[in-house]
Amino acid sequence: MYCPTRATVATYTILRRERLLPSPAEVMVQSGEFVEPADIVARAAKAPRPELIDVAKGLSVPPEQARKYIQVEAGSTVHTGEVIAARKGALGVWGKSWRAPFDGLVVAVARGKVLLKPQSTGASEQIDLPALLRGQVVRVLPERGVVIEAEAGLVQGIWGCGGQSAGVLKVLVDSPDEPLTTASLDASSQGHIVVAGMLHDQAALRRAAEVKVSGIVAGSIRASLATLNLRIPFPIVITEGFGQLPMARLIFDLLMGYEQEMAYISGPLRSPPGQFPPEVIIFPAVRGQATPVEESTMIGPGALVRITREPYLGRIGAVRSIGERRQIIESGILTQCAEVELDDRQSVWTPVANLERIQWVSEGKMR
Amino acid sequence: MATSDSIESIVVLDCGSTMTRAVLVDLVDGRYRFIARGEAFNPKGSSESDLLISVREAIGQIENITGRTFLDDSKAFIRPDRADGCGADALLIVANAAEPLHLILAGLSDRVSLASARRAIHTSHAVIEHVLCPPFQPGQDGKSSAENKLDLIAAARPEVIVLTGGIDGGPTGPIEDLAAWVTLGCSLVDSSTRPQIVYAGNAAIREQIAEIVKDVAPLILADNVRPDLDVENIESLNSVLNDLYRQKMLSELPGFRTVADWSTADVLTGLQALGYVTKYLAHMWGKGHNVLGVDIGGSMTTAAFVVSGKFNLVNRPDLGVARNVTRVLSEVDVSNITRWLPSEMGEDVVRDRLLNKAVRGASLPQTLEDLYLEQAVAREALRLTLQQAYPYWRKADGAAQPFGPEFEVIVGSGGVLAHAPQHGQAALMLLDAIEPHGITTLWLDATSLAVPVGALATLHPLAAAHVMEGDAFLNLGTAVCPVGVAGRSGEVVMRVTITYSDGRTLDLEVTDGTLESIPLPLGEEASLEVRPLKKFDVGAGPGKARRIKRLVGGMMGLIIDARGRPLTLSASAEERQARLRQWFSGIGV
Asked: Rounded to an integer, what distance in angstroms lies between the CA atom of residue B365 and that of residue B367?
């Protein structure tokens, strides 16, 4: 049965991720090299801020007439004191000129305005791109970055925010339905990716920012908190959805099992087509047998699924059967349904459209 | 390319943001008929969300239904129809699966050129992220207005900047200045990702604009959206934006180019297809009749209409009942949504459920309360979209029409309407969101054929006409909706007489606040006489009667909607919910 929605949870798999800078960069590593999360894989000079020079105003001429007085073109370099534009006065005297305030590159000239970018002095600020992943560089993308292959645990989420970071995993709760609290966050959480069952306290989020965590993984978040635009300075990954849903037991147990291991967290949700969902990737110190994930859009009996709508929202179970005919559900909608045995052995019928396949990869097997 | 004379079988692919549909139309006994439909949600959560997966699944469903083969061993579409019966003569594609274009609109006058440009943008797959309109105010951060303008362009990284302003032959300085700011702003963006500038202003200075922009950003010249103060021309800009949507957004979808290569004709956008259908319906209904087509999708809501013979369309590519439900939440208070619910639901619960729907757009409401919540959002998404249509609905003398024009036909399209378990629910969503007045027939695009038929019309008008007449729309019923204010609750507002084809008559006295479905079986004909009391108007003027000689029954028979315009809901939750339940019951929900 076709089931296009899925999330992957793997205890140990093999995966590839890109690490790229948006601007021209120097790649600092070579193909085949092994990298640690803190290693810098690419570096770029921070572009100096261009300055706008209103030549027309300076020469007291209308913008449409300014072009004839401007002596530089887009792309040309100028040195401090060099004349950018000049206008002779009556009888060739008492003219006005405009000189370059610094060494720079003319970015654009339009309607009497010149955009001048300061020339890099070599001591300018740099942007360093850390690997954030532990693995082997399998491809160098010239002037952009690298592709890293890693053997790791993987938890894909349904929602996320923030950028990417790395840190040691720290589980702050005892059970998957426990929320993150301010009390559980102290200085020992600094630089860690912290794990909790739920996220519904704004104060706890602020506290996490204060103690400088590297990221948060939680089962659910209240929608009111997710849409607050709190400018959270770290990534968040949500595994189940919005509301007060506990983290799926199998995900919680996986993260518990990897406590104190180094991990990577990526929160962006609205990524370009073909990019990955929010995710946490864990690099255990002891390596195991990596099982590749084979993506499939089909489900059948035995498939592990998460139910994505009320009244069973967030429940995990296994497909027992798929109805041969469409059936009418409580809302009155006629649709294809599946029988799912939940983790408490209860069997329920739910629309196939409300199933999210969990691609569970563990101990050399995929389910 | 096959000529329309030689085309018998046609598959139309409708690639939406959440779901892909495939529709098969074929010649049966000399008439083109809708044969089968397959639909599949687009993959989500994959590292390579590929449109090809859902397209092949939807086509596969048609293969299962018909027993015919449309995909070859390499899973490519077979075209033209082979001698062994495999494949189809033509394949058409309608697509709005990609994110809309994000653009910055720059112009000189908010009420003139910018107003016209906004209308052009509202008829396309584009969202305005920022508007640049001089004079520019310095920012709170102490930066000069000039720096702010440049920063805005560099930070927003729009796909497109639409530059407009000035009537043809008018002053040129201010628009050239604005072009300079835009150009300088673009120069700060990395050359590989610089926005496309589209100039749709004073046509007399196109060369000067090209001179300013050259070497910095690519430029497309469109016709001036406001060539004169009282002349508007938005078609050219609209066409440019549609082309850019195809080139910049659709083409980037993984799998899209392969699917597009199978197509017999150029890929159409969903808006173009809906536009064709609405125009065709207006043509079919006859001159002087107003037609409204609405489409409520997961990420986009559209209204296309022909009013007084003139076609227009408004689109909100950022509003929907699934992926873009968050935008609805950001534009209306949660209480606007809960006011349509027949039982209490807390604000936090509403937000949580709607955001869960946003991230799992393909999911279906399993409980009744979830269904009502989705239908409530659909009402608000459509109401927000229609706000953009009101400027088009002025009278010939420019006077505002407080309740819009009277529409003879309203067609409702989109999953939330088509998949409503009860036809009364679909009818009620349309009545609540549009608030039609006078006498209106409601049609439902129950088989989601509106967009495919619109595409069909571009290749094979006869096939489109056959499908439209025979299979496309379901008559929900004719609604009689008086306008007027009752002095007291329960006051009689009109008397209605229905004369059935067998001579029986039914006389009704309709009181204020009534919403009721009167039996008139589907397809059965009757005549109707409506006599409003003098404070009330059903389209002929206050107190004036209207007679309809031939009224055709729909799924809901004849609908009496005497709830008043504008529709007002009680501030008391208890009273309002009781009233809603009464209305649900009145319309058979």
From this structure: 6
